[in-house]
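Why do we care about 3D structure at all? Because function follows from shape, and shape follows, mostly, from sequence. That is the central idea of this module. The next example makes it concrete: a single protein chain, its amino acid sequence, and then its structure expressed as tokens.
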Amino acid sequence: MHHDDEHTENADAGDGRGPDVAHLLVRLLNISQRIGRYAAHETGERTSPATWRALSVLQEKGPLRLGVLAEHCRVRQPTMTVIVESLLSSGYVARSPDPDDRRAQLHELTLAGAAALEDWRQRIGDALEPLFSDLSARERELLSESVRLLDERLRRGGA
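And the structure:
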């Protein structure tokens, strides 16, 4: 365990209720990034994480204008333009006029894009599963409940 991990893991909120949630969430964010790097390495993935993030956002949010998609993916609009052009040429995204403003365009996930996204998620899951295959039933339940809680809180917060 790294020294920073120990400090963060043992950080107490000072209110007698146990570990400080903010410190735990920062640690979770760091662990999440490590998981992503590990999975990319194990799968040999060369596609930019921003590309998969764009497809994921379109799957979750539906058709979006380029600027809105860029905001959701936390990239600048010129970067998103490059990503979307690549996705359009791959057939993973389709572009159509925005019915609310014919001058604007919407970008939508295609069936091929959804299939590519599902394949990527499967490969990521297959790469990560061996790290966790020895979890006990209790640990699996804890992991499942933690994922549910995090997802619920993020959705409630609009993330």
